[in-house]
Amino acid sequence: MPIAVQATGHGLANPLAGAGVLVSTRRMDSVDVDPGAGTAQVGAGARWGEVIEAAARYGLAPLSGSMPGVGAVSYTLGGGIGLMARRYGFAADHVTRLELVTVDGSLLTVSEHEEPDLFWALRGGGGSFGIVTALEMALMPVARLVGGGLMFDLGETPDVVSTWLRWTAAMPSEMTSAMTTLEVSKRHMAHIQIAYLGSAAEADELVAPLRALKPAYDGLQEIPYRRSDTVFSEPDQPHAYVADNVLLRAIDEERLRDAIALSAPGRSVRSIISVRHLGGALSTPPRVPNAVSHREARYLLCVVSPTTKSNAASARALQDELLATWSGTAVGSSPNFTLGRPDQRGAAEPFDAEHRDRLLQLARKYDPAGLLHPSFVIG
């Protein structure tokens, strides 16, 4: 029977159908921080909030994402683009060891020197090779950051889109940011999310061109890293949605404006468009190579649509429409941002051809009968 693994259930995209075995790792939630080594041993069921809290006691921080309720291990297996990504790179780049149970019941320790092929594949290649029960990751010497959001009414400040795009081109790697357009109280708003690793005075100087547009809300402030969830302020309660994305070398402003217009309030299916600024350390491969692809991308464009049982197909169709114009120029996609789409028809490939072929060979080696049912399919 097919085997699927679930930690938190966030981003379920490849559900079991009919007979199968669901392995829940939710009780494997241990987090053990070694402050001297600057590492954390994280169980497969641990959420980022638990890792953040454990690391913060020693003035350290993990390369966590925008939502602390997400499972730390599954996020990292997909690469992991977090709040400090432009400064430190992908979360997968900083994994030092993993524990893996293969489909034949073998328990393997995977590292640079033990099972090196699996060490390459698991860091960014997902769960097609076995069940990861724990991993060891490096922590960053970060206790505080300048973080939060600026909100703009797109009807009153349409220039915020072009201003943010020009602004990102001049930002140092210590600045990681994103722009999300969404409906707030029937108004079409642009939410610019900022995480800066530097002083509040430096952040004020860098953010001045954005503040010159007079945001409707300004929540940017210096915060402890344990409050990093306030940067994106995402919902902390479960809800259904689908998402797809493309990775781009550059953003065509006119196309982006057209996509934002298609997602404006009033359509039968709501859509949230998020653009994340990449580059910086994300462009540099780690010392020990891994399966993360498309490091040349400078932006990630994601479309998220809240769904009900009756409109899921319409939501996927709208995403296809919004992303279709980008497919010819996309360099790929991020597996961590293709969510809730059982058909797995992404707008672009998550892996380049060389990486995909190597990952498929390893998947066939460690799961020859194809029993594993991972959250995203290699190809």
Task: Give a brief outline of the structure.
The protein is of the alpha+beta class.
List the defining traits of the structure above:
379 residues; five-stranded antiparallel sheet; alpha+beta; 23% helix; 9 helices
Kindly describe this structure.
The chain is of the alpha+beta class. It is 23% helix and 25% strand. The protein has helices at 48-56, 72-77, 85-88, 116-125, 160-168, 200-211, 253-262, 312-324, 353-366; strands at residues 3-6, 21-24, 31-34, 39-43, 95-101, 107-111, 131-138, 144-153, 175-184, 187-196, 217-218, 221-224, 241-248, 272-277, 299-306. The strands form three sheets. Strands 8, 9, 10, 11, 12, 13, 14 and 15 form an eight-stranded antiparallel sheet that branches. The two termini are 21 Å apart.
- In N-to-C order, the SSE pattern is EEEEHHHEEHEEHEEHEEEHEEHH
Structural class: alpha+beta
The low-pLDDT segments are: none
**Amino- and carboxy-terminal Cα gap:** 21 Å
> Considering DSSP H and I runs of 4 or more, what fraction of the residues is helical?
10-25%
- Radius of gyration over C-alpha positions, nearest whole angstrom: 20 Å
Strand content: 25-35%
Seen as an oligomer or otherwise, the chain set is single chain
> Overall mean pLDDT score?
93
State the major sheet: 8 strands, antiparallel
Strand tally, please? 15
Number of helical elements? 9
So what's the overall shape? globular
